[in-house]
Design goal:
Strand 2, helix 5 and strand 3 (about 125) form a beta-alpha-beta unit. The protein has a seven-stranded mixed beta sheet, with helices on both faces. The longest helix has 12 residues, at about 90-100. The N and C termini lie far apart (about 35 Å). It contains nine helices and seven strands. The protein is α/β, with parallel strands linked by helices. S-adenosylmethionine binds near residues 15, 131 and 227.
Length: about 250
């Protein structure tokens, strides 16, 4: 629970936390299933202890949106543990739909009967708030990969300070990612493409892995499309896929 002092130091968040309505089934899942996989910030998190079985690697997805990418990579890699972070409650609820198979209009039934779909491993934990509130609780050099896919571009110059890729957040990510680990950033916005390249060029903790233009023009082989990626393509924008290695 936050006290007044914590509230004063809370970073300002400019995006949306809630849509106009959260439907009945989504609410049911947020109330009854999210607590089973929810992470809390405050004290240091022991990542291996978050999962019922030992995990080989740990990955973090920041701003998972509707959760399609997170759900898919977690299913591809049951041997790994995934931390997903999203402030937008409708997005979190959508991830819960994907994990449980319970869709809008389905009979909700008894809370104790909700479970992961049979083909899913229990390898996702969710922080449903601003990731910057979680950073201090995460152990250093603990992640093999961090995904930041289509972050809000805040294209206007006067909003540049809101962009997630900035020196302060990169310093935290450099602390969290193991040496040799990967920071994957995708964007479809011209202003943000230039911004990311500039921020990363000035950063001493990461090196760009691209050897030729195909390496950043095409998604990596194990890629899963996201909602914003599809929207960008529909609207005629070409996404780029930057991969940076922690040195
Ligand atoms: C443009 S959307 C992209 C969503 C998704 N990655 C995709 O590609 O479809 C950016 C998402 O990041 C989330 N977000 C922005 N800042 C965040 C923060 N500080 N912590 C957690 N989530 C954040 C927003 O709520 C939003 O859902």
């Amino acid at each position: 629970m936050m006290n007044n002092q914590d509230e004063l130091h809370k970073p300002k968040f400019f995006g949306r936390r809630k849509g106009r309505t959260i439907r009945k089934t989504k609410n049911f899942l947020l109330e009854n299933f999210l607590p089973r996989i929810r992470l809390s910030a405050g004290k240091k998190i022991d990542l291996p202890a978050c999962f019922p079985e030992p995990k080989q690697k740990f990955c973090l997805e920041i701003g998972f949106g509707d959760g399609e990418h997170l759900a898919a990579i977690a299913q591809d890699c049951p041997q790994n543990g995934f931390i997903g972070v999203e402030v937008y409650q409708n997005g979190v609820a959508n991830l819960l739909n994907l994990l449980t198979g319970i869709k809008e209009g389905d009979e909700c039934g008894n809370a104790d009967d909700i479970s992961l779909l049979p083909d899913r491993t229990d390898n996702i934990r969710v922080f449903d708030d601003d990731v910057r509130l979680l950073f201090a609780s995460l152990p250093s050099a603990s992640f093999d990969k961090v995904y930041l896919l289509f972050p809000d571009p805040w294209p206007k110059k006067k909003h540049a300070s809101r962009r997630f890729v900035n020196p302060e957040n990169l310093q935290e990510l450099a602390r969290l990612i193991k040496k040799g680990g990967i920071l994957q950033i995708a964007t479809d916005h011209a202003v943000y493409k230039r911004w990311v390249m500039e921020q990363m060029r000035n950063n001493k903790d990461f090196v760009w892995t691209a050897k030729c233009s195909d390496d950043w023009r095409n998604p990596p082989a194990d890629w899963h499309e996201t909602k914003y990626q599809r929207k960008a393509i529909r609207e005629g924008r070409k996404p780029v896929f930057f991969e940076y290695k922690r040195i």
